[in-house]
Amino acid sequence: MDSLIAAAARALAAGDALGALKRVSLREDPPALALRGIAMAQLGEHPRARELLRRAARGFGAHEELSRARCVVAEAEVALAMRELGGSSRALVAAQSMA
After folding, report:
1. Residue pair 29/17 in contact by the 8 Å Cβ criterion
2. What's the pTM?
3. What is the number of structural domains in the chain?
4. What is the pLDDT of residues 36-64, one digit of tens each?
5. What are the two backbone dihedrals, phi and then psi, of residue 94, each rounded to the nearest 5 degrees?
6. Residues 46 and 81 sit within 8 Å (Cβ to Cβ)
7. Are 11 and 19 in contact, with CB atoms under 8 Å apart?
8. Distance CA 43, CA 63 (A)
9. 21, 23, 49, 87: which could form a disulfide with 40 (CB 3.0–4.6 Å)?
10. Which residues span the domain enclosing 82?
11. Mean pLDDT, to the nearest integer, of 10-20?
12. 37 close to 77: Cβ distance less than 8 angstroms
């Protein structure tokens, strides 16, 4: 994990979504996309958060199953926040088997 990703993760953990976005806003690698998605969800931008989390999940390679599973779970949390409860649970079951 590079220092900007670590700093953005610490900012998110402290509730500083804007600080996290400042650190990873221009990056397109999967970890940065995932952190941007989480930050956008914290800011209430749920459709954008979902899009970023999906892009991050697709970007993680076969050897990064846990990271991909975390993106799927974060996307499910965004759906819950949006009150979209009618979605399929297949992705969550698949994420559970990845972890």
Report:
1. no
2. 0.84
3. 1
4. 999 999 999 999 999 999 999 999 988 99
5. -65, -40
6. yes
7. yes
8. 31
9. 49
10. 3-98
11. 95
12. no
